[in-house]
Amino acid sequence: MVNMIGLDRNLKNTKWANNCWRFKMENAFESAIFNSEKDKPLIWFLKQKDRLSALHPDMSDSMINMTILIKCGGELENAIKCSFVEPCSAENYINAMEDIITRTRIGKTWTRIPM
Question: Disulfide-capable partner of 44 in 6, 39, 65, 93 (CB 3.0 to 4.6 Å)?
Answer without folding.
Answer: 39
